[in-house]
Structure formats: C-alpha cells, structure tokens
Write a structure and sequence with these properties.
Length: 167
C-alpha cells in the first residue's frame, strides 16, 4: 500500500495526475484512490494498491504532507475510505450496463441506492462513463441514484457545478 500526498487541491487534479503518471505504469491489479484530507491544509491525497511489486519512480511526499499520505494509505488498507479512480475493470464501465454486469466486469463489490434499497442485479445502470466507487464497510461500493426509465446512475456526476459558481 502506498500513500502519496502531492498537494492536489481538487479531485480533478489528483485524477489527472493518476491518469497521466500512474496508469501508464501498467501495474497489475492497481486500485488507485483519492482521499480528502484536512491536514496540514485541505487537499487530496492518493493511495495505490497493486497486485505486484510497488512501483518505482513515484514522486516523494514532502515531509509536511507525510501524515496525509499515511492517512490515505491506512484508510485504503483498512478498506474504510477512498474514492477509487483506477481499478480492475473500470475501462469496461461505459454506456448502460446492468448492476449485475457492473459487479461481474469490475472490482466493484456492491451497488447501493442513496436513500433507498439497493438496485436489483437486472436494473440498468447509466455509467455516464464516470464510475467512482468508494471503500465502505470493507467493500468497494458504488452509490447510485434513480434516473429516468427505472434505471440508476452513479451518485457522482462527471462534471459537477462548483459550489457558488456563476450561473
């Protein structure tokens, strides 16, 4: 388990770094997560778990950010928290699939419904090509919301409107 804290200010910045610096390494079984941390300032740390040897050539976390990096690694290792960006099968989660297909094709272990019962395995899931499960209760869990036609979609939308944005 590796924790890194490079001072990314947003999830988007951390995801960009993961896609361009970590994904090309082709690490087997990679699960890369983002973690919102508050110390020593609010930012996004990342954690990496691989099915093989730890990667080399990653940047070194600055001393003042080591606590945040350690927190991210510990939370991921305990499967308590972390928002998965790269994980086995993520590239297959495009278009509309059934909940059962999402579980069969990826590392996602559970799909829940926000404020309601979990969707049935045959329920259509509109991925929006943006599926970010989270570690919850030891399981990689995708939280969904109802959408038109009796389907569900991931709770997290691909391009959220920033808080207090000009409308």
């Amino acid at each position: 388990m590796i924790g890194l804290s490079l001072g990314h200010r947003t999830d988007r910045d951390a995801e960009h770094w993961l896609r361009h610096a970590v994904r090309p390494l082709g690490l087997p079984g990679l699960v890369a997560c983002t973690h919102l941390v508050r110390r020593p300032f609010p930012h996004v740390a990342v954690s990496l778990a691989t099915g093989g040897e730890p990667p080399t050539g990653l940047p070194v976390t600055a001393p003042e950010l080591r606590e945040a990096a350690g927190h991210a690694a510990a939370e991921h290792a305990a499967r308590r928290s972390g928002r998965a960006v790269i994980y086995p099968g993520v590239e297959r989660l495009t278009g509309t699939l059934t909940v059962g297909e999402v579980i069969a094709l990826s590392a996602i272990e559970r799909v829940t419904g926000l404020g309601g019962p979990p969707p049935e395995p045959e329920t259509g899931l509109e991925t929006r090509d943006h599926v970010r499960p989270q570690w919850m209760d030891g399981l990689l869990t995708l939280v969904t919301v109802p959408v038109a036609g009796g389907r569900v979609a991931p709770f997290e939308v691909p391009d959220p409107t920033p808080c207090c944005a000009d409308h």
